[in-house]
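Job type: complex structure
Entries:
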Amino acid sequence: MVNVSSCSTEKQGCVRDAQNFVARYLHHTPLWHSSTLSTLVGRPVFLKMELFQKTGSYKPRGMLWAIQNLSAISRRAGVVTFSAGNAGQGLAWAGMHLDTRTLVIMPSVANQLKIDATRGYGAEVLQHGTPMEAAARCAAIVREQGMTFISSYDDMDVMTGHASLGMEIIADMPDTTDIFLGIGGGGMAGGLVKALDETGSKARLFGVEPEGAAAMSASLIGGAAVQLEAVKTIADGLAAPGAGNSCFELVSRRFEAVLTVPDDAILEAMRLLMTRCKVMAEPAGAAAVAGLLQHARKRKLGDAVICIISGGNVDPSMLRQWL
Amino acid sequence: MVNVSSCSTEKQGCVRDAQNFVARYLHHTPLWHSSTLSTLVGRPVFLKMELFQKTGSYKPRGMLWAIQNLSAISRRAGVVTFSAGNAGQGLAWAGMHLDTRTLVIMPSVANQLKIDATRGYGAEVLQHGTPMEAAARCAAIVREQGMTFISSYDDMDVMTGHASLGMEIIADMPDTTDIFLGIGGGGMAGGLVKALDETGSKARLFGVEPEGAAAMSASLIGGAAVQLEAVKTIADGLAAPGAGNSCFELVSRRFEAVLTVPDDAILEAMRLLMTRCKVMAEPAGAAAVAGLLQHARKRKLGDAVICIISGGNVDPSMLRQWL
């Protein structure tokens, strides 16, 4: 489970190397002003439309950089991850473009759209149990088959690749004051910390977790990354089995707060994004907006508030139940 | 029902005057390449994302220009239109920005989201009967109350304003070969003809109508604009009570074809836009894609095919029934 990186994560310029590399494959996603949200919270609010990224989420950013940093031998043996589906698609898409065999272990109840898309990008998909059981099965496969495990969050190379998301935000809006983002295991969060460190940005970071999958909040209370016994939320894209150790280190050092929101607030944010912004965010993609709307009044926000919207992989049959 | 225009529709430069005027208020909406659609039809396909326009559809383009061209006396007396909701929002939004009182007559079954948004932009909304009955009520109000009627389609100033949509397409992609667009009464269609005339573009135009509201197809067969006895389609945004006379003249002169699609094909196109492009188009906004998918094989298309996606005003409770 060890990655060989061509670029130490402490080394100057590594985040920029990753950014340049992923820019060869991925979109620099747009940053939109939202009149509706700005009116609702009384500050200028912008949306980083990462659901328009390849595969519908930010995940291929880190996966591309992590695979790129593997040895040729490891790449020939293939890579594996566990995922509710977005990281799986990210791994599969990156593997397809970097000629690397990919295997994705998904929970048995995974969203069919994500399963089909992951297979469509060339990965083998194995469905198994709960998110925790899928993670355990993934670990067993790594031991037995000699494939390389790439965590979609608790991996320094993955987070360095994910940092490209933050680099785009700061490039487009250098005076960003506040960034709201969903937290699952903490991979995007860690990437954002790396980007702000790299650029010297003073933006405040606010993580948003579903109440039923609040591993990072629990970790901050306990002072160490915790694994959850169960997760229960409609936001499958944020239902990681626990917080990553290295993610926790970065989040606890740099985040202003990690907030929790109930699933109802996430659904309300999805409806708002759909009816007002005309975009189809999945629950994980709407969580940042839910957190902003629920907590904006209690926080002193600045003049350039950003919500990261990732992803957009909604199964129509699930959406029908949510509307 | 007569508009006083400051700029004759035959006059050189009028389309560009309108374009410059609406650009002060509205977005130049993006043109996106769609990998999914390009693969499906075997040609490069681009989407003109007009559902991101103010009010969620192209309608304020023409409404702004039409109101701007009214006399001060007419503007003080107020303007009225009949609409399933998108033209109503467009009129209301334009009136709000040009200090003009607006009244919108909508069918009794109109989408609640559109009613609320129209009122939100400051219009008075009156609901009445079928689309045909709403149109008749609108005509009665004009006679009785002295308000100025602005047809959302059969009006040269409105179409000149709508032409700005086509001007943006040609500016962004001068070598556009084929444009697919939904047709209701024919206002967008007429605007596109004006834009292609103005720019000298040789792009082919393909109109797409729901089978249950195919007024323009019937008009082309009969050789004159027809009114329908009834309309029945999920695409309320294309369910005009008939084809406009001046729209018909422009369409019959310049369009390659007007195609019809069943509601099922429109729903399939909505799902594709939602799951692959992450955007929430209403049925009227998905019709162009439905037409492209259904008819692409029978047509010899070029290397820059465009589908116009307008609008994006979906009522979540209706969406639930459609999924």
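Summary: The CA atoms of residues 162 and 287 of chain B lie 18 Å apart. The beta strands of chain B are 31-33, 45-48, 79-82, 102-106, 124-127, 148-149, 178-182, 204-210, 257-261, 305-308.
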